[in-house]
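Budget justification note: compute hours in this period were largely spent on complex prediction jobs such as the one shown. Inputs:
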Amino acid sequence: MVSFLRVLERVIKIADNIYSPLGTSTEENFKAVKSGISGLKKYCDMFDSVEPFTASAMPVRMTFRQMCIESATRALQQTDIDPSSDDVIFVFSTTKGEDLRLWEPSVAVARHFGNNNQPIIVSNACISGVNAQIMASRVLKAGLYKTAVVIGCDVLSKFIVSGFQSLKALSADKCLPFDKNRQGLNLGEAAACMVLSTVNGNYESKRWIYEAGSIHNDANHISGPSRTAEGSYRCLADCLKNIDTADLAFISVHGTGTAYNDEMESIALHRVGLDSKPVVALKCYYGHTLGAAGVLETLLSMQAIEHQEIPAALGFKEQGTTYNCMLPTTKTNVKGNSFIKILSGFGGCNAAVRWVLR
Amino acid sequence: MSKISVEISGKECTVNGEKLNCSKTGAEMLMELYCKYVKDYPKFYKMDSLSRLGFIASELVLQKEAELNGTTRFESNESRKIILANNNASLNTDLKYSVTIDKNNYYPSPSLFVYTLPNITTGEIAIRNKYYGESCFLVLENIEQFREVLQTIELESDALVGWVEYNSNSDFNCTMWIEKH
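Corresponding output:
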């Protein structure tokens, strides 16, 4: 039991990786997205599905463990961190892990890197990837560890495809977040890794600093979002406390392409007065990568700020939500050093994080 | 306010160390507890096993809290957090859904699929009590690790926290309490 907790000042991102159908590094992934390349393809009978569905799948089947190891290895190679050190903790974000097990395969990944600490696994539906960043920042700020290896991953399976089809949530064609003609979501698979640290080195270039994080429940319905965006609104409001929004470049939304999610997000953005900020929606490139989504989309948002350019919302034609959202139809230049990433999920949960490049 | 703790296993249920009178054990005991101590929330019948376990524990904790504080059961507490954890996530329900998928019946039960996430339990408790605070589900090795992780969460308001594990209709356990920092 920890009795005295030091509160350290800041958590920074020191390395990262995206391992997806669009590439095996964060840079490769952003390059693809910037060029308008999508990983989405139509599948007719994958996982014995009885209806065609569109998804972003790896070229070969890989397990959760393999994906996590591939991604974390590439991220850790960019650092001089010894992952087997007692100062390092592994934090996972996943909904289905491997063969429906979460604990055992996550421990196996940590052990692969020689790390013997108990990992923390966040399994909070679709907000897990942002939630994991918040949890990791907390344990780092409390001084329990110096470095956190945050890995978000989910792999496609018969279980997931069957389940989402049962809910009639899948679109047969490419998803169209916020568009009037959106028909539902696409599934995707990926692993994404973010190495966070409180170790203050002498860095010459700018660094990504974790500024705020918030989680709220809608207290409304287990499988549908709040009609008034209660949870998402509160998360955004928390992340906007005491800041000048002039430096906020954009909001990276969940944007699943389902009728209710996108509508709810438009309401949340309106309620906090962010209607005029550009919106980044990435599901048209990756589908909904479940446990990976929060980490993957945060990393691509960082790339967008670093390149001062946000990717186009592929296929977006006509606004289909009550309040207008500023989705770019071609890649667009943006200014500002910070962004907010929001997510919402089953169980009524919502999360947001704000990162700043300083 | 004195500390409140509810413990439920497949064999018995205690509130602050006092054993509640139950004639049944296992999943039937949860039903018996519902009929005796909750009664008026038919959504309970739709819930999966993990949610039923977490829900019953939350009801008993919150009833005890109201009793000790001399307040009504549904005192407004909008920012209260709900943080739950276990080691097996929603495995018991996942397996129930998994065995029903086949080529001729590819999507058997949407209402069961919705429960194949452990954090639906936190959602059910949030809905019942109108708690808009943080809700989170963690998968950890054991309750000791959970207590350690809880120390890092800044609780500007208090939180309903619990270890909720459902392995089978006879083998389950839950410890739930209100955490204040």
